[in-house]
Amino acid sequence: MASDETLVGRIRDIVAGTTGVAERKMFGGICFFLNGNILVGAWGDSLIARVGIEASEKSLSKPHVGPMDITGKPMKGWLLIKADGITKDAQLRSWVKLATKFVSTLPAK
């Protein structure tokens, strides 16, 4: 599934200037990495976010949020936020911030 270029651009704007951020094609979309670890990505018009198991479990009850299951096997600690859950920049920024909080605790690759 091709990434929504508008969403990719919005993510770029949020992570711009953050040390250690890189961008690559993955999962059929565009992923952003922090210190070599996947942080967030655009998959179609949805956001994938690596937030850790605890934050993932707490977030699953929120509207437009589900487990990241793009391969038929849900990934623990990851979320898929549908387009309706990231229409506002503040919403998108909060998911990127939550992912950054978790991924910054991981050892650099």
What labels describe this entry?
globular, 109 residues, 6 strands, single chain, 3 helices, 6-stranded antiparallel beta sheet, alpha+beta
Please characterize this protein's 3D structure.
The protein is α+β, with helices and mostly antiparallel strands. Helix content is 30%, strand content 32%. Helix 1 crosses helix 3 (89-103). It is globular. The chain starts with a helix and ends in a 6-residue tail after the last helix. The model has no long low-confidence stretch (mean pLDDT 95).
Structural class by secondary-structure content: alpha+beta
Fraction of helical residues:
25-40%
- Taking Cα atoms only, what radius of gyration do you get, to the nearest Å? 12 Å
What is the strand arrangement across the widest sheet?
A: 1-2-3-4-6-5
Order of helices and strands: HEEEEHEEH
How many DSSP helices? 3
Strand content: 25-35%
Q: Would you spell out the secondary-structure blueprint of this structure?
A:
Layout: H1 5-15, E1 21-26, E2 29-34, E3 37-43, E4 46-50, H2 53-59, E5 65-68, E6 75-81, H3 89-103
Antiparallel strand pairs: 1-2, 2-3, 3-4, 4-6, 5-6
Describe the structure concisely for a colleague.
The chain is of the alpha+beta class and 109 residues long. 30% of the residues lie in helices and 32% in strands.
